[in-house]
């Protein structure tokens, strides 16, 4: 029985719902300079009056009929600025953006505010109250004013990130993303009329987020400055994105016979319900290997004049791998190949030479998804995107593109959740390959792969055999099982609260190193896939994170077809949950036998959670059990005038307690993965404040060995404590987790517990509870009553292959005789 495979077990609907108040106390303490309230208050009053005078003089020159003005606040170097207290929505005072300048002791925070004309006196009143406080009253605005170093009129540079100011189009016209606070169609229409009046060209389409809309305009610095003076809606500017195009060399050899042999043993078993939707430059479905899986009415283009065909080969390469997985292995094998899903293609890239144009790529992506869904709305769809921008300026921060990915995945507008798989982006400079793997640490994951809700795919490689006789003096750069030379990482992201990217790695090929340190990306070290010009060649080499992403989409489709009830959050969670690190990765980037939690956190930003296994993602064994719960909770609520946390879920997992207890001191492994989607709130304000980008966060906690349920609940849930009761004094199994707190970033959290079977036998309670986000912190957006879904995946693995832990759990769930999967 031990070698037989079984379906994973779902235990949804068994969770206990409890009122919840976090046991965590307090917030981050601000670092503030000491100030003399009289002297500093007088200085701030003078600077504020001077800023208003300059604004009035400027508006008189340009004859602007504005309803307010923009003011910039500068924090003291080396200290914090209490930016949240600058905003006062009841008076219409809005925080437009927050930026950081400098490093170390010279680092300072800058914030741009929009202040309506009728609210100009608010800050003067705050200063007066600080300088001459009312008797017996504590001037709460003191921490805000102490952190302010200077106040001035906001100028064009105030609306750009510090590192992007060099990209301000001075005299020449260039495409720019204009981020606004507009939310209604009427406001956007009026804004477009203003653009016409100012003779500023704009592209069709816009992206909408909570409190933000993004449009693409073509302008120079003079026009942008004029737009600031004419509009009350500007919050920031960003340079428009340009995508990196991936080209593949053509191969001239005729391969028709090999393709026909594969077709002869391929069984197409899909009912059309599960599909991989490829967002790229089109797919040519005339290829013999694609004709059965990609119908003409499932081929779309966001601009009909582009046509739906493939212009350069990349989309068709993606298609072959997304439908067959490792096509080289399929061609070389002799067994039956079963295809259980189909393909869709949405062309979001224009044909050359417009391929490298600057676009609002989030809008293009949303259009591509929409076209497929309009054609077939009821399908279970895995969206696959291997188009990225390599300008390297976001470095983990949400962009309009990654924010759009998060919005599409979260189903923000129509409550339809979607699994989106995105490539991490490539290291394709031979100079960087020479410095492998060091340059992989500084080549950052490309936009939009920083998206929280996307499954981001990097590359590893097992390809180390070079058979080309002309390359006898060459050797592979990466060792077998190591990080691929093509793979980007998030190792150099400065903000550790941003997601772990990439989450998983799949085969992406290798590069050969030759005499005099020469680099050669030989076909021997690549994968194989379908070529778009099948009159010339059937097959072509394929590599890098595009190939890895297509393989991940193929895996996701197998999971979805095997578990039709699985949510997109669950399919993503199973891919991460099934991933393991190779011994080579551990030797490369985590060489110590007892790594610190910081070393582990750094390692995750290089290798993610490792390489997913389709077998582990699909099946349990008798000695290796996987349980899945899909549930929904309401994170927040309103209590009086306060917005608070509302619910937590307590899962009493149907553990094989007796079997584990009988194993005693035997070492076992338990893995726990929590997967959910957040609703994004992007913008410079969004990621400068950890509560502003994600709508909510979830966390999990496990009870410690012999920790009773009452004590566990009181430990994690302050609301469960009776009057006068404090912390129960019990502790969780912190020392048994491999990753620890570093897992609590992004919207998927996975960790590995190691201990004895006897200890795990009494650690069967899992709490899932909310952490804060903009649903609670921005109550005026009226999303605080929203509910969120999550998938909880739990696995136990025992070293004793003959031990059956699956059957006892199946019996508890009402499955008396488990049936193996054939």
Radius of gyration: 28 Å
Strand content: 15-25%
* Helix vs. strand class: alpha+beta
- Report the biggest beta sheet as strand number plus sense, adding barrel if it closes: 8 strands, mixed
Which stretches of 5+ consecutive residues score pLDDT under 50?
244-253
Mean pLDDT: 89
Alpha-carbon distance between the two ends = 13 Å
Number of helices, where a helix is a run of at least 4 consecutive DSSP H or I residues? 23
Shape: globular
Please bin the fraction of helical residues: 25-40%
How many β strands by DSSP?
Answer: 39
Question: What this model shows, in words?
Answer:
With 822 residues, the protein is an alpha+beta fold. The protein has 23 helices and 39 strands. The strands form eleven sheets. Strands 15, 16, 18, 20, 21, 22, 24 and 25 form an eight-stranded mixed sheet that branches. It has a five-stranded mixed sheet with strand order 2-31-39-35-37, with helices on both faces. Strands 8, 9, 10, 11 and 12 form a five-stranded antiparallel sheet that branches. Strand 32 and strand 33 (642-645) form a beta hairpin. The two termini are 13 Å apart. Residues 244-253 have low confidence and may be disordered.
